[in-house]
Amino acid sequence: MTASLRTVLSRAIDYAGIYPPARLPLAEAAAEYARLRDEPAAWMLARFVCPATAVAELAATWPADDDRPLVVAAIGTSGESTEELRSRTEEDLAAIAAACAGSRRVIVDQFEVKLPPALLADGDASAVAAAVAGLLDMLPRGLPPSSLLAVEAPVAGAPAAFVRTAIAGIAALNRAAAGAGRTPVALKVRCGGPVAAAIPTLGELAAVLAGCRAHGVAIKATQGLHHPFRRRDHGLGADTHGFLNLMAAAALAGTAGSGPEEIAEVLGDADPGRFRFAEETLTWGTHRLTIADLAAGRRHGVLSFGSCSFAEPRDDLAALHLLER
Description:
Layout: H1 3-9, E1 13-15, H2 26-36, E2 45-51, H3 55-61, E3 70-75, H4 82-100, E4 106-114, H5 117-121, H6 125-138, E5 148-152, H7 160-177, E6 186-190, H8 202-215, E7 219-222, E8 231-233, E9 238-240, H9 243-253, H10 260-268, E10 275-277, E11 281-284, E12 287-290, H11 291-301, E13 302-307, H12 311-319
Parallel strand pairs: 1-2, 1-13, 2-3, 3-4, 4-5, 5-6, 6-7, 7-13
Antiparallel strand pairs: 8-9, 10-11, 11-12
């Protein structure tokens, strides 16, 4: 394995085994996550993903003979309005705090929640900034100070103004909070789903990557990213996004002169042979991305992505001779 691939995928996969299509029972998913942490490919594994309301059950389920901390990305309960979102987030954080109280076994360092559609429909970035600031102020009640807040805006089939408003609001908040020691808020982006309509088009996803990089907003990706490269899902009757396409596009978005059209081209390239992971570089076409470019693509681009399977990404990478079996 090359240093370039390790830079792209180190602690990149948040394990979401309890979510579809895997839908494992919580105890079974926790046992699988514990097993995965002992694999040679465990360097790609990041957090365990579960609802905020299930953190207490997860803590009770975690194998007693595993004394390593269990790091969790908690999914918050969404609301139809800003007021309802605040109320539900308060309840979620209280549940997390109670579950983690006095325990070093469970650490929730990431909280993800959907923004109300009505908030985005108004097109008011300052209202988004104020709403997200309210959530950010609540975070220390249940999570460590350096925890990440990722707020989701719809992408697939949604008005482009929704995600533009979300990005602008998050960027304004991050600028205002700069120097306060807080982890910048990220945008959560859903890259797939149970139906073809839930998959963002190449143009939609490219616009998000370009817009986020231009405004300095990092991304937490989720759903549909089971395979390294773009491929046809015959069950859905649609092409699905690849996680290496996404990571390469995020890195490219940070280089000079790369616009949405070129980013979309990287996202849509289904030929693994066009992506060359050398020791110190990733080349795609005429573009040469250095380790520094790739590291910036992770730090300022795609922080991680959720997947209900760790085996699929691992086995696909091995089949492509990018990873040792």
